[in-house]
Design a protein that fits this description.
2 domains; GroES-like_sf; Quinone Oxidoreductase, Chain A, domain 1; seven-stranded mixed β-sheet; 21% helix; Rossmann fold; globular; alpha/beta; binds NADP nicotinamide-adenine-dinucleotide phosphate; 305 residues
């Protein structure tokens, strides 16, 4: 099968190569999925899991990409809940070969059914950004209707999901980002917008929940904006700052079939809009990741035409 591999961390996305690899086999509780569309987060080349297994042994050359939508082509021993030929989407294990490939083997529990009327490219754009937003807002942030939320990077892949889900849940959403992102954040439902390069973040006052995808100084300053009893959830930990009165939670997204189904149902009925910036083929993927252009949302790789 065709797959993109990485071998040297220092080379970054420029070190990606398109090669032929043996098709993966389904282990216990696995399925093999024929990948139709794949999603990739550029920062994953900085994650230890891209380079080493759970015992910290070198696992290169490794296949990056951890989101996918596709069709089940094989079932491992003991696998239940999914069937051959079923359309699925989900989040692959960080420590195993990923989805920038024609086939991937992964645990069935990390996948959810993809309804027939949802395009594979849309399905592949949802798992990381949708689940990260869902888990940060509702599991870790315990968001309630009527609360106020700062959604950092509100025009980005995760931030646009945070903005929409928080609004739907009845929150008041203050999006942040660069000046050029104001209209996009408002279009995704932000009630207000802070241009982090020209406005003063502190002017927004105290909020119940900060959803951080930026880190560094912005994260540190944001901890002072949490109301007593409020929470800052960050997807770009480790959180260096400690809050004055509230709680700081670093988290890494996990797959969850029920949450994936909630998310895709919202896409079908129009409550949630995807934020796909670019769609490229597998043989264009390396160029797409190295274009030097500013990303305008999620990059999706259409592995099968
Ligand atoms: N822990 C987890 O489970 C998890 C899950 C998903 C994502 N993440 C992490 O979350 C981060 C965001 O992911 P994403 O896919 O949403 O990325 P993205 O699509 O690039 O969105 C980030 C947004 O924030 C903006 N931004 C970043 N720094 C900024 C700054 N200093 N001032 C103003 N705007 C700024 C970006 O603008 P520019 O493009 O102009 O910088 C972009 O619009 C990444 O670091 C990713 O690795 C973590």
């Amino acid at each position: 099968m065709k797959a993109i591999v990485v071998e040297h961390q220092a080379a970054g996305t420029a070190g990606m190569t398109l090669v032929d690899r043996p098709e993966p086999l389904a282990a216990i509780n696995d399925v093999v999925v024929q990948v139709h569309a794949s999603g990739f987060v550029p920062t994953e080349l900085e994650w230890p899991s891209t380079w080493a297994d759970r015992r910290d042994r070198d696992r290169t050359p490794s296949i990056p990409g951890h989101e996918l939508a596709g069709v089940v082509t094989a079932l491992g021993y003991g696998t239940t809940g999914l069937s051959l030929g079923q359309r699925v989407f989900g989040l692959a294990d960080w420590h195993r070969d990923g989805t920038l490939a024609e086939y991937v083997a992964m645990e069935a529990r990390n996948l959810a059914p993809l309804p027939g009327d949802v395009d594979f490219a849309v399905g592949a754009s949802l798992p990381i950004s949708g689940l990260t937003a869902w888990q940060g807002l509702f599991q870790h942030g315990r968001l309630q209707a009527g609360q106020s939320v700062i959604a950092h990077g509100a025009a980005g892949a995760v931030g646009s999901m945070v903005t929409q889900l928080a609004r739907e849940a009845g929150a008041y959403v203050i999006g942040t980002g660069r000046a050029a992102d104001r209209q996009k954040a408002i279009d995704f439902g932000a009630n207000a917008f802070v241009d982090l390069e020209n406005d003063t973040l502190e002017d927004v006052g105290r909020v119940d929940l900060v959803f951080d995808v930026i880190g560094g100084d912005i994260q540190k300053r944001s901890t002072a904006l949490i109301r007593p009893g409020g929470t800052l959830v960050t997807a770009v930990g480790p959180a260096e700052a400690r809050p004055v009165d509230g709680l700081v939670i670093d988290f890494v997204v996990e797959s969850d079939r029920a949450q994936l189904s909630e998310i895709v149902q919202r896409v079908r009925d129009g409550r949630l809009r995807t934020n796909i910036g670019k769609v490229a083929r597998l043989d264009e993927a390396i160029a797409a990741f190295n274009s030097g252009e500013r990303r305008a949302g999620k990059t999706v790789i259409r592995v099968r035409p």
